[in-house]
Design brief:
The protein has 282 residues and is of the alpha/beta class. The protein has one domain: 3-Layer(aba) Sandwich (Rossmann fold). 36% of the residues lie in helices and 11% in strands. Strands 3-2-1-4-5-6-7 form a 7-stranded parallel beta sheet, sandwiched between helices. Helix 1 packs parallel to helix 2, helix 1 packs across helix 8 and helix 4 packs parallel to helix 6. It is globular and about 45 Å long. Bound molecules: nicotinamide-adenine-dinucleotide (NAD) and magnesium ion.
Amino acid sequence: MTKPTEFKAQKQSLPGQQSKMKPEPEVIRKGYKGSGKLKEKKALITGGDSGIGRSVAVYFAREGADVAIVYLSEDKDAKETQRLVEKEGQQCHLIKGDLKSESFCKKAINETKEQLGGLNILVNNAAVQHPQDALQKISKKQLQETFETNIFSFFHLSKLALDHFKEGDTIINTSSVTTYRGSEHLVDYASTKGAIVGFTRSLALMAAKDKIRVNGVAPGPIWTPLIPATFDDVEKFGQDTALGRAGQPSEVGPAYVFLASEDSSYITGQFIHVNGGEVVGG
Ligand code: NAD
Ligand code: MG
């Protein structure tokens, strides 16, 4: 397990690439045993090239699922996720493009169905964040980019996925602890993450009649490419949590396995808080 002190002086102005992170995030817990919880399931994971999304892809594969991942531009990272999934004996289809475009969202859903032969699990996980210390500094362009990426794409993909979903299929949305406690430097980002909570709860009620479940995960500080790419001071990242350290993606992935599998068959409209011990409402 990586200790927070090892992040020391690691501010890296890198283009969000996992392969360049020091230390490299842990993708899956050593010795994690799959038990076929997602056997024969087909999953689409956005932002599956790196960080939490990569971890979800590899855990899903170990539990028997084939996956497709959407990513923006990080070819090297995406190929590494593919390699890790294939090592588990499962398929991994790569889909590169911009989720801000509704027609690309359509392509992603259709390709997943065609390449994997179905779609049972949608993980809406891709996001951007651009810290600003004053509201005046959040430009209209930034506001639009953040909302189009972080929440509009969740609507587009979910809408299209529901056309294919059958009883027992699931949607899992990634929110953030910033929704529940606020964030002084991520006002627009935290707003989209709050919208995801409302979206999840409402869609869960709407889809329940078709026996489709919709849940989410609200991570706290997790060591992923998003962090050194967007924050100046990563030295203390995660140290203010009860557990006193940042989490690894490998500690987040199992929450998605739980929500995607029948283990959570009586849970819908809920969030799991993988945040190192911060008690938050809902
Ligand atoms: P990450 O950078 O590894 O993953 C985000 C991915 O989103 C990128 O790899 C990128 O390919 C994809 N993406 C971004 N914009 C896109 C677009 N327009 N089209 C297609 N793909 C796009 O970072 P991560 O930390 O693993 O983030 C995953 C999720 O976890 C995000 O929703 C983030 O908000 C959430 N989260 C992360 C933390 C944390 O501390 N890392 C905390 C709370 C919530
Ligand atoms: Mg990435």
